[in-house]
Amino acid sequence: MKRVNAVVVGAGAAGGIVAKQLATAGLSVALIERGKWYTANDCRKDDLRNQRVTVLGNAFGPDDEGNPRVAVDARGVPSIVLPSEGQYQNDAACVGGGTLSYGAQAWRYMPQDFRMRSTYGAPQGSSLEDWPISYDDLEPFYDQAEYEIGISGDYSGTPFHGPRKRDLPMPPLVPNREFGILESAAKRLGLHPFHLPMARNSVPYNGRGPCMRCRWCCGFACEVDAKNGSQNTVIPVALKTGNCDLRTECMVKEILLDDRGRAHGVSYFDADRHLQQQLSDIVVVSGCATESARLLLNSKSRLFPAGLGNRYDQVGRHLQGHHYTGASGYFDFDTYDDVGPGASIAIIDYNHGTPGLCGGGMLANEFIRLPIHMVNGLPPGTPKWGLGHKQAMRDWHKRTIVVFGPTQQIPTASARVTVDPSVKDKWGLPVVRFEGNVHPHTFDIGQVQAKRAEAWLKEAGAIHTSISAGRPDTVSAGQHQAGTCRMGNDPQGSVVNKVCQLHDVDNVFVIDSSVHVTNGGFNPALTIMAVAFYASGELVRNWKGTGYRS
Amino acid sequence: MQTRNKAALTRRQFVAAGVLGGAALAVGCKAGNQGNWDFFTDAQALDLTALCDQIIPADGFPSASQAGVITYIDRQLFRHYRRHRDAYRDGLEQADALSRKSFAKALADATPLEHLAIVSAVEKQNPTFFDLVRRHTMEGYYGSPRHGGNRDGVSWRMLGLAEPPVRGRAQYDLRKGAAS
């Protein structure tokens, strides 16, 4: 197989951008993805099999067959979990990764989110740290992501966002009914509601049409291709250069090292499960926080017996996602208008600045509800079954608003990804094993956030409310998984440096949510994209034509 | 044909064969069941109907079974829910035994009021099985019609949702856009 300049592992939010940036700069790229390439034609509006409701499996991977993981519970007991189960912490496995089927909220983190330790100090037992780069460093790349991927929304209603040089490229969608109900209530409370940013066309953009406002949105591929992910933006551009070869259904086994401890490519199983080698000048790992850590840990060698880049036992640690909390409000008038995507209005007043709390989080109305979501979302005291339950479904399905949001998660070193010593996947590779749980201060923040959501709903006229703010005793990762290959200046306390290059091996990069030091009080997709534009920009700048020399 | 002998296999053999034999046996069983169902015997289907129709009873709108919930569960026991086959076999057997003990008649022959009492008892005595049936009943009733439940989108209509859904509502103003 012909040697390439760069192997990029994973064609998701970050990998697609890296491939495009390198290919357009003239590097030859092999973009290797374990999943398939689905398109708008593969959109199945199946309420029971998508990436949000997975009772009949994941629509966009992985399959339940042959892709197990292991979750260790609070008592230290490991159990096997399947991809369609919550404890699997699934994102997706396909071209586009999570961005094919995500809700597509496209947030910038706030300046404080990059210096959490300086702002708040680290709570006891936590590994709260500052990023080695700042909001200002990323701002141009947030902008690039907003324009190249295509974001709609309007920040003008809030003063709390970080500085930005220009408006979003698309106006917000026409507000749904919940927007109107919640907007006036927020204003009465002295808050600053606005049209949340989304990677979704509100007007024709980038050669594709606008959102048609259907009910099958978050968790689904978009039938009219109005949702913007890497699969319909940067990856087609990368392929058009002629420099990028996308290989789907190919599972990377390990990163290969030469005698001097530099990477010289990867070995992978192709779609027919034949082992192949792809030699390269550099390797970029973009498999998302769990799978990127796993690949490094599975890349053992004489020089790195505990896994590549893992000399100081940092790979896989600081695993974090988002602890979601909020409230449901039940109204005596119709709040539901069957207009997707549903989520439309947000406040970021509470992300920072609450005395006693290390951060906070964004609050927004939830994505449009499918009837199956409502089955367990009825007011407290509703019968769980029988005529009472059926009647309550009729009473409340159109009269419920859910407001919730991602709580800024306080990282710990003990929440981690390792590889299981015995369980293997269908390729015979050791699988991801989760250990640890969530730092308790995260729950303190979540509790306060849930009450704030409830207050907002009450002001909006809810006649009943219920709070959702659990204290689960497991890791939190899921679709917002991050942190496992921390970016930092200290090689003993992080895995990559501030340009996403392994401290230990100068031609291996990790570019995805793994490098997030903290994960903000926001959906992370746009930050993953901005980091990918930033890091691949640095990579191209330092590219000397025949290899990477830092 | 081996598949015609399904009833003759002990449960243990059947389970072992299911684990090892996978899809081939699954297809075989399907062809071999001479009743109206892929997985259930007709008697089991009647027992399950009794339970599901208490979880979602008929009122002005169809009950669980009338909306196709039994079909939904039956099909999934050959697809995504193969792992729940034993739970259904055992759980239905226990529910029937409970009926015989409490009312001296088979579950299928009991009255709706007696069914209600049995389902309440199952919820207390065998919560794992009850939760499974409740979950699957709700999925079948409120999920997508393509899986055999929610026949003709009846639950969605009940909730006042347009079915088939309204298509192509692009609510945008081209004059506002910085379209490219």
Explain the overall architecture.
The complex is a heterodimer of chains A (550) and B (180). The radius of gyration of chain A is 22 Å and the shape is globular. Chain A has a domain at 1-43 and 92-151 and 228-318 and 483-550: FAD/NAD(P)-binding domain (3-Layer(bba) Sandwich), CATH 3.50.50.60. In chain A, the strands form three sheets. In chain A, strands 1, 2, 7, 8, 9, 10 and 18 form a seven-stranded mixed beta sheet that branches. Chain A is built from ten helices and 18 strands. Chain A is α/β, with parallel strands linked by helices and 550 residues long. Chain A has helices at residues 13-24, 116-120, 135-150, 177-188, 234-240, 289-298, 371-374, 387-396, 440-459, 525-541, and strands at residues 4-9, 29-32, 69-72, 78-81, 152-154, 194-198, 244-247, 251-257, 263-269, 275-285, 323-330, 345-347, 363-365, 400-407, 416-424, 430-435, 464-468, 508-510. The longest helix of chain B has 19 residues, at 85-103. The termini of chain B are far apart. By secondary structure, chain B is mostly helical. Chain B folds into two domains: 1-34, no CATH class; 36-158, no CATH class. Chain B is built from eight helices and no strands. Chain B has helices spanning 11-21, 23-32, 42-55, 69-76, 85-103, 112-125, 127-142, 154-158. In chain B, 34% of the residues are buried. The model of chain B is unreliable at 1-32 and 171-180 (pLDDT under 50). At the A-B interface, helix 7 and helix 8 of A face helix 7 and helix 8 of B.
